[in-house]
Prior knowledge:
Layout: H1 12-16, H2 34-41, E1 45-52, E2 57-62, E3 67-72, E4 79-85, E5 88-92, H3 95-101, E6 111-113, E7 121-128, E8 141-144, H4 152-159, H5 167-179, H6 183-186, E9 194-202, E10 209-212, E11 221-226, E12 230-236, E13 256-262
Antiparallel strand pairs: 1-13, 2-12, 3-11, 3-13, 4-5, 4-9, 4-12, 6-7, 7-11, 8-9, 9-10
The site of zinc ion has 8 residues, from loops.
Amino acid sequence: MSIQKIEVPADAEQRRAATPLVCYQVDQLPAYDESFYSRVRDGMVKVDEVRVGPRDAATFTVPAGHVFRIVSVEGPQVGDLNLWNAHDLNERFFSGKTRQLHASHVTTGDRLWSNLPNLRPMATITHDTLGWYGWDADGAGVHDVIGTRCDPYTNHMLKGVDYHYCCHSNLTRALAGNQGKATDEVEQYVHDVLNVFMCTGFTLDTHQYFMKASPVRPGDFIEFFAEIDLLGALSACPGGDCGSSHSDDVTVCYPLLVEIYKPLDGSLDVWEAAELSGYGGGHGMVA
Length: 287
Ligand SMILES: [Zn+2]
């Protein structure tokens, strides 16, 4: 197969030299109110915890105004997180818009936004013990909103085998159990994830999505404040620390722990649950 020759225009370098602009005026977003969230964190009390087994997923609920943590226990392990409005599965985490509003990887102060037409913060990240990692020499960071989730369809396409414990299947099974429905009734609600603790980037030469061993260690956690009533599902990825492979039973995997905390009474006095988008609707359609 021959590749068609492409002419390079004479002003190619000039065109490439255009100034990059951050797409959204993110300084218009409500600022992260550090003093409010630290008041919430002070004296909060753990009220529940859910253990997520290796190569499996579990669901959990978090009332608006509560805090939840995803904690590394026993060994380095990556988690794939889905979030829904606890009262309506149609409102769910929108990783693509979260990426555009914040960055390819998220940390303290960033919010997890819901899908259109809702577009409101579902959760705010209030602590991240891996916040020190930043960007490494490979251009990688931690907690990405780039990748989707490992799934049996892509795995079948690439390897020709059926593997049932990809994050997509784990999340589907967990949601089916939570809703008391069959997997094919809920699979459509499983969505692109926050890759908790995963260390990823794009290769500098070919811009391909890559992973490397997660820097997470037992005791590390990422913490979220629930801005609305949440149903969450977390999968302990079959890739383990994602330093070698995924979508198989070869890699060493560990459990993850989800902890739910209730703030002290009075610390939410000035807070209100996030409101739906104020866009008036219609999309320009003339009646
Ligand atoms: Zn996975």
